[in-house]
Amino acid sequence: ADPAVPGDAPRDDGLPIAALRHRVVAHVRRRLAGVCGVAPGSIILAGVSGGPDSMALLLALAAVSRRARRSGWSIRLHVGHVNHHLRAGADADAAAVRELCDRLGVPCEVLHVHPGSLEGSLGANARRLRYDALAGAAQRAGAIAVATAHHAEDQLETMIMALCRGAGLDGLKGMRWRRPLRVGIDLVRPMLDLSKRDAEQLCEAAGVTWRIDPGNDDPTTVRGRLRREVIPVLESMWPGAAPRAAG
């Protein structure tokens, strides 16, 4: 059964009113129609890993698709979950995403890739196979874009890494809101100026739990060390630094 949300019994296709009205939903809708350039009536494929960021993206896009139908600006939503088969919890991640998609009535395709069987950088291979799989799923769904849940902390990490590697002022541009992924399919990031905590709060409002990938904070990786040791210090010195930098 869905987790109870005190004082918020009315639901719309699996979404509590608190989630439908959450400020993240309106923010994602504005970014989709604005800087992401998504046209009304478009089919969007959301890449959902099962973590708090991507679960929030799924919730926000599901809410946008429902509320937008009443206001005349609509999208149609599909989900792609990529199983990299790299850790013991991978199948449970896929099950959690499928369960939420079933609750929301959103079509979901689980995509299987095996970067661990390839030579070279595991991270680079995983990223390449992931985007290839999502682009293929988008093509099959008739989607014009793949949406990912990159958020403000991700953007700040990207900017810091680029700057420190010698990218100069160009490194401060960070990830783009929209870029080509495959012919006829773009990658869009409607959460780039939202914080990780914003994503968690939307999940909490919807009564949705998320999966944790321990590798995300692995201190032996550049991003993992930034997440554990650098970004928290910056946020303690300048609260809200990540969303401001990403905006």
How would you describe the overall organization of this protein?
- By secondary structure, the protein is α/β, with parallel strands linked by helices.
- It is 47% helix and 15% strand.
- It is built from 9 helices and 8 strands.
- It has helices at residues 17-20, 23-33, 52-71, 90-104, 122-141, 152-164, 196-206, 222-237, 241-246; strands at 11-12, 15-16, 42-47, 75-83, 108-112, 145-147, 178-182, 185-188.
- The strands form 2 sheets. It has a 6-stranded mixed sheet with strand order 5-4-3-6-8-7, sandwiched between helices. Strands 1-2 form a two-stranded antiparallel sheet.
- Strand 7 and strand 8 form a beta hairpin.
- Helix 3 packs parallel to helix 4, helix 3 (52-71) crosses helix 7 and helix 6 packs across helix 8 (222-237).
- The protein is globular and about 45 Å long.
- The protein starts with 10 loop residues before the first strand and ends with a helix.
- Residues 1-10 have low confidence and may be disordered.
List keywords for this structure.
single chain, two-stranded antiparallel ribbon, 9 helices, disordered N terminus
Summarize the structure.
This protein has 247 residues and is α/β, with parallel strands linked by helices.
Largest sheet: 6 strands, mixed
Strand content: 5-15%
Distance between the termini: 38 Å
What share of residues is helical?
40-55%
Order of helical and strand elements: EEHHEHEHEHEHEEHHH
Structural Rg:
18 Å
How are the strands of the largest sheet arranged?
5-4-3-6-8-7
- Structural class by helix and strand composition: alpha/beta
Q: How confident overall, as mean pLDDT?
A: 89
